[in-house]
Amino acid sequence: MDLDSARHLLHPKLTVLATCVDGEGNPNIITLAWAMPTSIDPSLVAISVGETRYSHDLIHSVGEFVVNIPSSDLLDEVKLCGSRTGLTADKFEETDLTPVDSEEVAVPLIEECPAHIECELVDEFRTGDHTIFVGEIVHGSVEEGIFDESSGTFDMDKFEPVCHVGGSEFVTSGRKI
Ligand SMILES: Cc1cc2nc3c(=O)[nH]c(=O)nc-3n(C[C@H](O)[C@H](O)[C@H](O)COP(=O)(O)O)c2cc1C
């Protein structure tokens, strides 16, 4: 097997829209398939961001980001935020997504996404041509009725995630197993 395609065997992956800001508070959105929880106590999440991405330097220098979890109705926005760069485009304007003040960080969250994880950057690791940014969760929010906090699970009859298979292929939730 071609070694270059082997990492794609880890897909499909839940795909998120991470928000970040520049030094003047102008917000940007980046689509990420490489995002995961990485510690229970403290509660940490990690995102892997390519060094060439505009968002890379924003997250590194400002030290905060929000992981917004879109549902399948936002697929077009996921694609746009994953193909345009915030260096030359205002992705909030282009997508018509709405930036809303977060509770604990200066980075806005995306109103149309049903769930949000606000993070403060606590560590970062260079991994080849990407950087893993580790964020401590300082606030979380989720649309009422779609997530059971006692079991920590989405109601999959009520939430359709965007999962990236590879290339331009995506899937959403299927049957329960
Ligand atoms: C489905 C999908 C998943 C992606 N996942 C990642 C990822 O995990 N890490 C990354 O650095 N770029 C990823 N990208 C590419 C970036 O989203 C893309 O390069 C984006 O235009 C960068 O925006 P920026 O320059 O405004 O930061 C993904 C793109 C798509 C469409």
From TrEMBL:
Residue ranges occupied by any Flavin reductase like domain in the UniProt entry: 9-156
Cofactor: FMN
InterPro entries the record matches: Flavin_Rdtase-like_dom (IPR002563), Flavoredoxin (IPR052174), Split_barrel_FMN-bd (IPR012349)
GO molecular function, one term: FMN binding
Keyword set, alphabetical order: Flavoprotein
UniProt record similarity statement: Belongs to the flavoredoxin family.
Protein name as catalogued: Flavin reductase like domain-containing protein
Organism: candidate division MSBL1 archaeon SCGC-AAA259A05
